[in-house]
Amino acid sequence: MQKKIVFKGTDHSAPLEEYANQQLARIEQFLANERTPVYIDLIIEPSKVHAHHKAQLMVKTPDYDRITSYEGPDFYDALDRVVDTMYLHLHEDKKRKDDDKKMVGRHEEFKKQR
After folding, report:
1. Model pTM?
2. % pLDDT > 70, the chain
């Protein structure tokens, strides 16, 4: 699993990176049993004009390819929301994938019954 946290347009912040790592632990745990390669990229970018900072999270695996982003007045809130949204989307994708696996071949059974 390859994880990268990028501070774009700002200096590196150790407390913010530590907080981001704590939040990304949920995503890493969810993807622990996925096929490799697994890429997690988090981009943190402050706004120079407005008080809206941007956080963008990208997850790329053989099964998932998702990008979420959020802009808000607080870096920590933006991180929380972008990680929560990604976690929700990954769970929905997994459920959809599992449902599709269950339905493979089922339509043939129903055709025979008619």
Report:
1. 0.81
2. 90
